[in-house]
């Protein structure tokens, strides 16, 4: 029987990461905390996610390393470093935009971040959808789909070229609108938090929000190892674009295990980092 504490943690897991996690990040930005302090807060959220997954996993086998732990750390370091470089490049990029900003800088910072999340979600979702339709994009995206277990940290596991494509799809409208560097930095934080939630190995409570938010309960279906089953639920933050595309899907009776994940047509997909970086080009060749 579940303890009262476990029920309490599962009930608060989603609002803690979604509201408290992003809320404290926004507060830190408003109070001019250093970028190192913000990075430390994100690191703490990753650690909390990992600890709760170990304590009360949705599926215990998802916690068992498959020669992938070190690889996932490298993926996270490389990809988040690229995100930070991108944010630092915003002033340079902005100098080449030939028209005035239309970004609502007068709005509260939390509202600006929410607007950025909504806009970026549409672009990233469409890029993700295209990555399951066009071979060149799929070969890059396949790196992410090669996972054989679902836990928060491997949400950050992506080929850096594919992450760049998705990032451009999500942030190009924001840059053209004149979104400030601060908002884009907080968007990066929001993406990291969302990937932790989306790939989490915790059976946290979501209730009716499951039909709106792109959380782990719906995203696991996207990682099923056949195109027939896995070409669903492309959204990063929400399922709104999926509903418009007709790709939103959920089956509460379906239990997803390790053997259901991965790439059915490539069961021998490389596991180590460097081979994964080279695999898309070998397969295209």
TrEMBL record:
Keyword Oxidoreductase: yes
The entry's keywords: Membrane, Oxidoreductase, Transmembrane, Transmembrane helix
Record-listed E.C. numbers: 1.-.-.-
Gene Ontology molecular functions: oxidoreductase activity
Span of domain Fatty acid hydroxylase: 113-247
Domain of life: Bacteria
Main location (coarse class): membrane
Listed transmembrane segments: 7-27, 33-52, 73-97, 109-130
InterPro entries: Fatty_acid_hydroxylase, Sterol_Desaturase_Related
The keyword Ligase is annotated on this UniProt entry: no
Cellular localisation: Membrane
Protein name: Sterol desaturase family protein
């Amino acid at each position: 029987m579940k303890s009262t504490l476990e029920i309490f943690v599962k009930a608060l897991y989603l609002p803690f990461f979604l509201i408290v996690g992003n809320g404290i990040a926004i507060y830190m930005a408003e109070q001019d905390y250093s970028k190192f302090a913000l990075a430390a807060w994100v690191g703490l959220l990753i650690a909390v996610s990992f600890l709760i997954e170990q304590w009360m996993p949705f599926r215990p086998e998802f916690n068992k390393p498959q020669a992938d732990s070190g690889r996932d750390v490298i993926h996270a370091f490389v990809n988040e470093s690229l995100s930070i470089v991108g944010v630092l490049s915003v002033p340079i990029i902005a100098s080449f935009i030939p028209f005035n900003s239309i970004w609502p800088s007068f709005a509260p910072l939390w509202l600006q971040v929410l607007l950025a999340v909504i806009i970026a979600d549409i672009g990233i979702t469409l890029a993700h959808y295209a990555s399951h339709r066009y071979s060149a994009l799929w070969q890059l995206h396949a790196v992410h789909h090669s996972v054989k277990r679902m836990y928060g940290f491997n949400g950050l596991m992506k080929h850096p070229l594919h992450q760049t494509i998705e990032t451009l799809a999500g942030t190009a409208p924001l840059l053209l609108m004149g979104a400030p560097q601060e908002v884009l930095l907080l968007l990066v934080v929001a993406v990291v938090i969302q990937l932790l939630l989306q790939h989490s190995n915790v059976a946290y409570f979501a209730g009716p929000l499951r039909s709106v938010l792109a959380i782990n309960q719906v995203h696991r279906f996207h990682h099923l190892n056949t195109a027939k089953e896995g070409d669903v639920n492309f959204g990063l933050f929400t399922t709104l674009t999926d509903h418009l595309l007709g790709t939103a899907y959920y089956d509460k009776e379906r239990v997803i295990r390790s053997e259901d994940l991965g790439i059915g047509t490539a069961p021998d997909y490389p596991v180590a980092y460097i081979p994964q970086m080279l695999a898309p080009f070998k397969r295209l060749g």
